[in-house]
Each structure stands twice: as structure tokens, then as C-alpha cells.
């Protein structure tokens, strides 16, 4: 029998048993109650308990069985597993029916199960983080067994080309050994991130200052959601925009100044990434500026400061931890951004300080390493995980620092409000 | 000199509007701020109803009255802090140094340079103690060189009676001080720009009794140099520190008088009820 | 004696000017951001709107014997270069299925070649002089025209620009989103309910909280690495399938839904919980019958926003292989599929100029869906917004 037939048979029988459990349980509970005994719970609650007792253990047994069968390749006959789980379901039905007694807390039992289910759901979020960590660390370790960690961190040449020959057992044919020096990739990543921040931080911060301090209420209620449209545009769309529209403009501007510019220069993705991040900075900064207590502004104004001086010398310094924290989050976002650079930045690892040259980034190389028809075991494929590990570590620490800063900012103003 | 009650609403005849009922003979009587028929609306609701009052230089005038009576609103009219609230409309005259401060032509920043303010809750800037004081004089070009600035900071802190407590930690944040110290820092900050008038909006209501006493002593010393107008909830405080007292009720000045007379022998029934604690 | 008002005002002039400058500069920054938005949308509309029109050409089809082997023979020699090759390829297939066609003739509007299409739209094209003259002549006779491009919405990907469409990507998106929602919605809501209503405030709960906040800020591509290493390599979920794509995106959407749900639950005032406890409800009954129904609009809004985010995501899907070339629509969860943003990515990489238009057209469709979803969320929030 096919797996899906087995599955539907299992599901069908289980559903049937569940229905039987529900109605039998309710009928029995109703009978007991009609018999005059005071029960701890409603008949429906007994019925649901019977259903849980029937289906719960059976599903657990079959899931464990399937897991053993598929992943650990333990020899279990499929039919036997099916029969076993259904037998468990039948036993569960019997136990559930026996528990329909006046002194049994069916509701409490159900709620314990629900609470357990909720807790399990909450655990999945932890499992996800660990999943990311484990999957990346595990594969990255395999990479570092092949290539030295030190070379990876400090090397200036990224040339994975020959590695797949090595994986195919033909290492001698490669002209040179594969080299995995990630410095040029990080240089490119930081260059593009820096350009993005040069666009996003001034524009975003000033826009936030205007919205929070100067704008009439109508402008503010309109401007904030409009800016947020920028944040909702998919990154693949920005990538297309950067490659097709912005890059040619950058090239012609550079040429007008007598500079040479590659079509996949670092400026175009940098600027477009900056545009994407503007609402991120403006929205967070606007919140932070708004949460600077009004008494600060009044204190400065009452000393005869102009509005501009009040903002520059009192409001912004007070909001600074929050603004820095927003900027750190924005940096972490720019570092991990993929589609814009995949579509608009270069593929060539290039250690240069000239933003008009083509440069590649960490995320571009991760995508490049994982989209070819390469063997998973090859060093190039695994290098993607090593790069991912560094990216994970950097963004995680940026996030943590930023969370700590914003928390301190909030605490500071709570304390000061005497 | 024993003139009748000021307010038209209490039915007394008004020989000279805005003048206090009686005058403190020992005090100096130069006029600082003259207010005539001042009304203020928040949207549709009228918060101040045709106030007339004369405020005198180098004196402490206390504004008392039940909460919501408009005394803080009135105080904020004197340095145009109400401009910051949207939907506020002001009519009438607030005259200082021969100029109507509510005119559009009047630069409110220049006004606030001459009319300082201390708030209910201490609000030191998130800067060092030194910077809290030096910042405004520097912006106003009152000092040009570092030694001058140091001198001015020390003088302001001495005048505010805070110097001895903070002279060793001038570069710690202003927020690290205790509540009472913070409020004295705010007073030092206000006097450092050498204003003519200092407005105080319930300056001690967030403080403990000991800090309150320190600040009351301070006010008494400061009135030699500045005109002080203070809002207070605390009747004893008004009686202790003020030369003149104005009693506000529902947006009107019911009675304005020499403090001693006001507390000993109030001219109006409402003021008497309030002072003796029958309501408010 | 202190300064007069006029002296102070004179000193203030420069400072007022600087203050005004800050106002104008900051206003300019907001304006600049608005201009970016305007530039972006006008650029996309300019590039993408032509994709909704496609050149069609009226030709006479002669079902002769040669045409049964090579479709091109059915058409006039000169015209045949102007007709889409996908149409020519269909002729022998049609003749095999309907043998009675042999010998008959038929005049029909058929899809024109993309070069004709680009020429008519005034874009760069590769037609030679003679072909251009012919197209001009046909256009004058009304035998070539731009019509609404139904092909774009009814076919899958193709190597020929004129015959490629977004249908298979749209179906792939729907299936992927179904998987995403089916996983992320229940788990997300359950997690939020646990944290907000049941969890004791201890280290463990705080750990979960920090975790969720971090999860929301992890670069999306790392979720792709997880999908590849765990779902595909460890659990053996088929590569490129909506199932693995949906599972990967579900993990990304999870924090969005959890955070939105917690906010919604928190906005339900405690008075309602106390009232329900007061009439003897258990904690679960309070949550199920009183808190959850009141929080539902907020939960839905958050889920829709999370869904819109997931729908625009590309990077993790590339890593799990969902950039396949999918010409035929397939509605299976385990077969290779592509999604709209991935389709946009694929087209953006095609060398032919005509694909630029298709890419922008696909982008417009994607943006329209996202704007619709977000507008729904906003309306939902406005409609059910409640002040306690």
C-alpha cells in the first residue's frame, strides 16, 4: 500500500474513533448526571476529554514511528505501525470512557493538555533560532575542517572556482588551489552598507525631525504611512530598480565627471538600499523623538532658545541612544540584505575603495554558492554556511546592542519623570 | 491706603484696575508687568476671563487658587509658553517694558530671554551639571571665554545655593542629582541668563519638605535681583514667601492683595473660604 | 541693567535664520523621501504598463502538408518572421489532433513576435528595414495591433517573452502562502497566547521573548540556509517545492504574527479578564470566549501584514531552489514551483530587452497584490479599532 493511502486510512479510522469517543463520552456523562450524581465538569468536557484520550496517544505513536522509519531508517513494517497506532487509539478510547466519572476533573485535564500544546508552540520559536544556529554552525564547521579559519577571516583572495574539481577528486587539474579569503566580500558588504547609511540616516533622521517637531498634524498623519510604503516594497523589486534604472544613471553621472564606472557598481545598490531603509530610520526615530518628554523642550524654550536650537541641542541629544539604536538595526538590515545586491552589485570579489567599481558582498556569494549545480559536500557550497555564520554573529550582536540601548533610553526617561 | 476689592465680579467699586488691594509699604513698587483684560481660550472653552493685574519688580507674587482656576495658564501667558499649545487664542494686553508681548511683531524668544521659567517637575537637560548652566549663556553670547563661563556657572550655582553640593562633580549628568538639587539646578540655569522676571510653576510640589524649605529660602534671596511670580498650591508657602498674593477662581482674579492683608483679613468671601480651607 | 527687547531681537536674527534653515532642510528631507517614492512608482508604471498590451497580428493559416511537419510553412514567408514561434510550434500539434484541418485555410489574429511588439511600442527592437516596412504596412491596414495581453495572465514562464506569463508563479505563490499560513498562524497565535495569558514571568519566558525579537531581525537569507540544511538535507522535503518554501517562510512570518498577537492581546483590558474570572470561568475559558474574540481583528491585521511580507520575500526561496523555470501550472505541494517575486528575479536575469517589460509588469502585479493586502489590514484595523 502507498504511504498516502496508509495515511488516509489512519486519518479516517482515527476520525471515526474520535467521533465515537465524543458521542459515547457525552452520552455516558449525561446518563451519569441524569442518575443524580454531581459531576466536576460538563458532559461536553467529558466528551472532549474522551476524544483527546483517543487521538492524542495514537498520533504521538504514529509520529514517532514515522520519524524512526523515515529518518533513522529503522525497519518497521508500515502496516504494523498503522495497526499499532490504531490499537493505541482504541485503548485510549477505553481509558477515556472509564474516566467519565463524577469525581474526575475532565475540564482540568483538558486545560492541562491545552496548556501543554501552547507551550509546545512557544518552544518552536526557540527551536527555530537553534535550528538556524545549528544548521549554520554544523555546516560551517565542516567547511573549516577543509580550510583554515584564520585564512577565511584574513585572506584577501576569494577564488572558490577550483574547489569543485577537488570535490570531484580531480584537484590536480585545477590551475590553482581554491582560496577562501573573505576580506573582499566583507569590504564590499561594508562599502554598500556605508553608502546605504549615508543616504538613509540623514534623510530618515531629518524627515523624522520634520514629522515630530515641525509638521502640522495633517502632514504627519499622511507622511508616516506614505513613507512606510517604501518599506513594504519587496527587495527583489528594489533590486530590479537598482539594476535597470539607477545603475545607468550612476554610470552616466560618473562619466560626466570623467570617472569610470561599472554597471554593477556599488553606488547604485547602496543608494537604493538606503531608500529602502529610510522609513525604517524615520519611523523609529520619530517614535524616539516623540518620547523625549515635552518638559525638555519647554525647559530649553523657556531659556530663550530658538526652536532649532532646542531640537539640535536638547531633543536630539536626549533621543540619541534611540536614534543610534535605530541606526544599528538599520545597519544589521543592510548587511543581511540580499536581493538588491544579488541583482545590482557585482559577482567579482574585489578589494577596492572605489565605489564605482563592481564589488561583491557576503550575501551575493552565499546565493552564488548555493544556486549552482554543485555537490553539497564541496567546499564552495559549505563556504556559504561559513559566510552565513559570520553574518549571523554580526547581525545578532548589532541587534542585541541596539535592544540594550533602547531599553536604557526608555528606563532613563521613566526614572527622570520623578 | 485701603482700596476696595479689585474684581468687578465681586461687586466692589474699582478705582484703579489691577492694583493690589493694599500695598506693602516696605517693598519697591516699580511696575514690571501690566496685564489688562487678558482672556484666553482653549478651543471653545474660556480659561482666563478678562484679567487685570499689575506685577511689581523685585517682589515675589504668589498666585493661589483651586486647581483648574487658570493660574498656571496665566503664568504661561507671561512668557508666551502657551504658544506651544495648538488651538489657543489670547486677547488683551500683557505689557512689559512698554511693549505688548502678545503682538506678532514681538519675538517670543527675546521675551523668554527676559522672562525665565522654572517648572513643576525639575527638567534638567541630559547634559552635565556644568553644561546645563553654561549652555544658554553661551548661546546668548553672554560669555565668550572659558574663564568667564566658569565664573558664570559658579556664580549661578552659588546664587542657587547649590555650589557647595556640586562643585566636585560639575561634569556628572544633571539627572544624577536628587529631586531638590535638580530643581535648584533648574533655578540656577534660569538665573544664569540674567532675566528680569522668573516664573515658577509650583516649583516645590514635586519635592520633599526639606528641599521645599531650601527653595523657599532661595526665593527669598533671589527677589533682591529678580521679579518672581510663583504659582503655588500650598497656602503656607504663599504666606511665607510672597509679598503679594493673587487669588484665582474659575479663570478670574477674585482678589489681589498684599500677602499679610490677604491672609489676615481677606476682602472677599471666596478668598476667605479658600484660605481657611473650606474648599479647594 | 538688562538688555531691551530690541537689542535682544537684533542678536537673535542670525539664530532665527539658522532655526528656520533646520525647518526647511528637514522638510526637504521628507520631500526627498516622497520624491524617491514618486520616482520609483512612475518608473515602474512606465516600464511595466506596456506589458499589459501585446502585439497581435492577423494572418492566414494554410494547413498544408508541409505545415504538419513544420508550422512555419502554414504562413506567408514574410509574415512568418513576425509571428510568435510558440504559435508556429502549435500548428503541427493542432493538425495531429484534428486531421480534418489538412487542406483548409483560416484567417486568425495570432500572437506576434516580441520584436514586432517592441517596435510597435517604440522600444528598441531587432527588426530589419524590410520587416519594419511590412509591419508599418500591416498596421496601416489594421492587421497588426496592440491588444490587452491575456497571455500574461494565463500562461506560465516561457523562453519567449511574448508567450511568458505569471500564472504558474501566481499559483505557486498561493500554494506557498497556504503552507506558510497553515504553519505560522496557529503556532504564532498559540505562542502569543501562551506568553501573554499563561506563562509565568520567569527566566525561561524571558528567553523565549528575547528569542522572538531576535528572530524578527535575522536576515531573511539565513532562514534560507536553515531551510536548505534542515528541511531539505535532513528531513528530505523536496527541493524547490511550495512545501519547503512555505515552511521556510513560515518561520520568518512567525515572529511577526507572535508580536502582533501579543499586542492585540495586551490591548484587551484586564477588566474583561477579571469580569470573566469573576463569573467562574477557567483561564482557558476566559481566553477562548472573551479575550481571543476581542483580539481577533488585531491578530488578523498582523497576520495579513506578515503574509504580505512573506509574499514579497525572495532570498530564502532562492536558497531552497524556488527559482525554477516552470512553464506549466502545477498544483502540487511537493513538485517544483516558483513564486511571483522569484519569477520577477528570473525575468530580470533574462538578456532579451522584451523581458524588462515583463519583469516590470510582474512587479506591478505583485505590488498591486501587496497594496491590496496592506490596505485590507489598514481597513480592518480602522474598522475594529476600539478604545477602551
From TrEMBL, chain A:
Give the subcellular location.
Answer: Cell inner membrane; Cell membrane
Which CDD domains does UniProt cross-reference here? TM_PBP2 (cd06261)
GO cellular component entries: plasma membrane
Record-annotated ABC transmembrane type-1 domain positions: 186-402
UniProt GO molecular function: phosphate transmembrane transporter activity
* Origin superkingdom: Bacteria
Q: Does the keyword Membrane apply?
A: yes
Function as written in the Swiss-Prot or TrEMBL entry: Part of the binding-protein-dependent transport system for phosphate; probably responsible for the translocation of the substrate across the membrane.
Q: Which family does it belong to?
A: Belongs to the binding-protein-dependent transport system permease family. CysTW subfamily.
| Name of this chain's protein | Phosphate transport system permease protein
Source species: Halomonas icarae
Q: What is the lineage of its organism?
A: Bacteria, Pseudomonadati, Pseudomonadota, Gammaproteobacteria, Oceanospirillales
From TrEMBL, chain B:
Q: Which PROSITE patterns match?
A: ABC_TRANSPORTER_1, ABC_TRANSPORTER_2
List where this protein forms a coiled coil. none
Q: Tell me which Gene3D superfamilies the record gives.
A: P-loop containing nucleotide triphosphate hydrolases
Q: Molecular function (GO) terms listed? A: ATP binding; ATP hydrolysis activity; phosphate transmembrane transporter activity
Q: Record's NCBIfam families?
A: 3a0107s01c2 (TIGR00972)
Q: Does the keyword Methyltransferase apply?
A: no
PANTHER family, from UniProt?
ABC TRANSPORTER I FAMILY MEMBER 17
* The name this protein goes by in its record: Phosphate ABC transporter ATP-binding protein
Give the range the annotation lists for the signal sequence.
none
Pfam families, per the entry:
ABC_tran
Question: Which intervals of the chain are annotated as region Disordered?
Answer: 1-25
The keyword ATP-binding is annotated on this UniProt entry: yes
Taxonomic lineage is: Bacteria, Pseudomonadati, Pseudomonadota, Gammaproteobacteria, Oceanospirillales
Q: Which SMART domains match?
A: AAA (SM00382)
Q: Can you cite an annotated GO cellular component? A: membrane
Q: Which GO BP terms apply? A: phosphate ion transmembrane transport
Residue span(s) of domain ABC transporter: 33-275
InterPro entries referenced in this protein's UniProt entry, alphabetically: AAA+_ATPase, ABC_transporter-like_ATP-bd, ABC_transporter-like_CS, P-loop_NTPase, PstB-like
| Native source species | Halomonas icarae
Kindly state which keywords UniProt assigns to this record, in alphabetical order: ATP-binding, Nucleotide-binding, Phosphate transport, Transport
TrEMBL record, chain C:
User: What is one term from the GO cellular component aspect held by the record?
Assistant: plasma membrane
- Segments spanning the bilayer are 21-41, 166-195, 215-237, 243-265, 304-326, 360-380
* Gene Ontology biological-process annotations: phosphate ion transmembrane transport
Q: Which UniProt keywords apply?
A: Cell membrane, Membrane, Transmembrane, Transmembrane helix, Transport
Q: Which residues form the ABC transmembrane type-1 domain?
A: 170-376
Localization, per the record, is: Cell inner membrane; Cell membrane
Q: Does the keyword Membrane apply?
A: yes
| Protein family membership | Belongs to the binding-protein-dependent transport system permease family. CysTW subfamily.
Q: Which PANTHER family does its entry note?
A: PHOSPHATE TRANSPORT SYSTEM PERMEASE PROTEIN PSTA, PHOSPHATE TRANSPORT SYSTEM PERMEASE PROTEIN PSTA-RELATED
Please give the name of this protein: Phosphate transport system permease protein PstA
- Gene that encodes it: pstA
